[in-house]
Structure formats: C-alpha cells, structure tokens
Amino acid sequence: MAHQAHNIAWQVLAANLRYQTSNAHKQRPSDLVWRYTQTHANDIEYFVESFVRNLHDHTVTERAKYPATYAPPSPDEILLDDATARKINRTVYRWRKAMSRNWTVRDDPPVKWNGSRALCPHDNKANSNSDSNPTCSCPLPLSERKTPAFLRRYTRNDCYRFYKENQDAFTNIELAKTLILHGQMDPLLRIAAHPETDYATWTGVTACPCTSEQLGWESLYRRALDAYITLNIIACFPELWDAECRTQNGLLGASWGSLMEDEYRNTALYQRMLQNCTATAESAVSTYPHLQFFGIPERHVRHMFEFDIGVAMQWPALVQFVNKEQEKKKKKKKKKKKKKEKRVLVEKRKFPFGQVPFDVFLNSTAPPPHLPSDHDIQRVFEILHSKRLPPELVQPILEMAEYDTPQRRLPEPHDPFHRANRDELTRYLTFCWVTLVRCTMLAQELGLRINWKLEVLDCLERVVNVRQGKGLYGYEWVDRGTRRVFYFVDAGGNMLREFTVLEGDVPGFM
Fold this sequence. Notes:
Elements: H1 10-14, E1 17-20, E2 31-34, H2 40-63, H3 82-102, H4 162-181, H5 186-192, H6 218-235, H7 243-248, H8 268-278, H9 288-294, E3 304-308, H10 309-312, H11 316-331, E4 343-347, H12 358-362, H13 374-386, H14 391-400, H15 422-445, H16 452-463, E5 473-478, E6 483-489, E7 495-499
Antiparallel strand pairs: 1-2, 3-4, 5-6, 6-7
C-alpha cells in the first residue's frame, strides 16, 4: 500500500498510468507511462490537490509543536548548543570532505578535516591549529555555531567565482540543510526571526549562470519529493515487485522483444529517480539520506555513465554509443597509434533509462562496495569483543575503519520492495515526507511560499515518461507579460483546460 493512502489520491494517479514493457527492437524502455484518458486533467489535478492539502495540514500540525513566536538571537549567541552539535557533527564532517573534493576552482588547498567526534575546542581562529596553519580543521568550529555565521549573505557571482564569493555563506546553507535532515528546527526558526537573515535569497542559486544544478533549498526538498512520489507510484503496481501478483498478471519474466525481466528496478521511472537522488552533487548533504537508504556509496552514481565496451555491446541501447565513439575515432587522423579504448562514456541526458537491466545500470563504472548496516556493525563489534578487546578499544578501531556508523538501511541491498525491507521502506517514505513538511515550515517562517502544486507537477514530469518529451502542463504569458496562465495538455501537447495557480506563485520559494 502507498504511503498515506488515506489522505493522498495515489490510486487516482496510478489509474492514469500503465506499465510498458521494454522492446529492444523498437528501443522502447521498460517504464510507467501516461494513459492520457478523457479524465486525465481532472485526475491529475485531484491527485495534486490532495497531496498539497495533506502537506499543508501536516505543516500546521508540525509548526504547532514549536513556540508561536521567536525573539531574534543576540549578536554573539551560540545558536547550536553542544547536544545539537554532537548530533550533526559526523554529517558536517562528511560534507566538509565532499566540498574539499569538489572545490577545484578554489585557490586555497583543500583542508584536511578533523574526523574526531569531539566538539571543536577552539574559540577563535588565532588559537585554532598552529601559527603556520591558522585555519581551524574542525568540521564544525565554534564560530560556525554562532549567530553571525547564520547571517552571511549571498553574493551574485560570475562563472567560476561562486566559491570565491560565497564559500562561507554556502557552508552555512549546507549546515542549515543538515539541521533540517536531523530534525533540529528550533535554531532555524530562531534565525528566521532575525531581520538580517538572508536565507530567502538562496533559491534558484547555481554555481555559475550557465549551470543548472540547484545549490539552495530546492536541492533538499526536490530530491525527497522525487523519491517519495516515485516509490509510491511503484507501490501501486505490485505486479512489478510481488512474485504472486506478477504471476497473476502474466509477467513471468522477460516479455517478447525484451531482454529484461518485467520488474520495477528495470523501469526508466526507478532508474531516473535513483540517478536524480544519488548522483554526485555540489550540495552533497541533500543526497545523504538517499545514498544511505539505497545503499549506494558517494560518487558512485555520476552524471556521466561509463561502461566496459564488452558489456555495452551486449545491450542494443548501448551499442549505438560504442558505434558513435568508433566513428569519431575513424574521422580523426592519428599520427601515432594509441591504446585501444576499452570503455565508452554516456551522458545522463542521452542515457537509455529503462533499456538496460538494473544491475548493468548500477554497475556501470564498477560494482558498488559492501556498505555496513546496523547488523553488520553489531556483528563486527561482537567479533572484536570475543577476541577479549575491551569496548573502549573496539570503538576507536571501528571509527578508524569507518565502520562505526551504518551506511546502508536495507537488510536486503538494492531492493527496497523486498519483503525483508518493508519496515525500512516505510521509515524512509516517512522521512521524505517529514523533510517536505520541515522545508515548508521554514519557508513560511521566512515569509516565503513554496508552490507545491507546480512542484508536484514538475516532479511528475521529471520521473514519468520524460523520454517522449511530453509534459503534463504548459503556460503562456498574458496581460503584457505580467501574468502566466497555466493549462493541462494532452498526449500531443494540445491544451486541455486551464488550472488555477495563486497569483505570484512559481516553482520554488517566493
């Protein structure tokens, strides 16, 4: 059963989708596609409104758990107390390391961050480390926990100047996302009451004007939204994940013309979502809950797929990329012989989602390593303890081996709908939903508005049937370009009917 099926019209949405088997001869992906029925527009709007209404109700309930009003924090106040800092310290250390890898445009050398769980002992930069290196290497310095760090302002930048202009401000935005993921909303609600907060500006922010990756709040709630909607859609099609239902519906294996089994992980819907939620990102923290749930290590899924040519030649959808690569090489005149390339690269925007099996998709660069679960960590602890090592020695050993924190949630790896994973799947869907609620609550506190109606529609366009290039809705400017009129479209892109969006609302924050 889908998550919150009593409040959100998942079955209405699912009734407008059908399963499409893959066909290697026609280069047709395994996917869930729109039926475009006569009631298509009404059904989609009914689903979206039920989703938005439920989100609004949950946000009101969640906000009532906190004080109605907050006084702005004092200029040098420590906003994050020691308990909060300890709770988020490991996550901050993780994305600090990721930033050091990604910030190749900086002039400064990457910092080697201190991985200790202990809180930062430095009260200022002067006594932080040494005279030769005054930069504090603690992932969460005391200065980052004080009010001034939360009041840094975004500066518009030219290409390749983002980190030069906004490194400190972006660090705080990543810290704010960390607090949201850990449910530590009180400090954020307090800073939202400060008249000088600049959090509202961090919408639609990219590293360069010519790039599209969102670095602001959108990266957090859009990944959660993609995962939440995709997995709930799949839950409405048990024949794609339940053996008994598959038999009853005649999906006994690979369909005619298909080289893949009819199974949810082989669909373009699931593969697109997994790529969107777990691929390497500048805002690394927004991927962490999804990496942990799906059991995928950082930097494993990227925006460029890489295949061994021998593997690629086994799948018609990938053969075309091998042939194109070989044609390019023939056109180039080589002065000297070079080693024969053994791998082929495929860009995300050209990747044939749903036309290769899940294991080929997941293992494109290399098979993912084993990531420890709670059970694995407990088992290793017991083995070391059985060797008569005291607990105070076992724990540092686990920390040094990075085997002290679960990196995988699913008991049965890479199969969320496996019977053994049902409880974890429910917890994950709840977490994604709560993330949407928290983001909405903070937006309202900042005097902003997330247009969830368009956000949900845009999410459906991202994950469902995007390869056909057919959207769900369109719009046109009226009143001399001062207002937009939105309308649903049919399979051919023709207008069906208009739908209402509150004046001034746009996707993201307002």
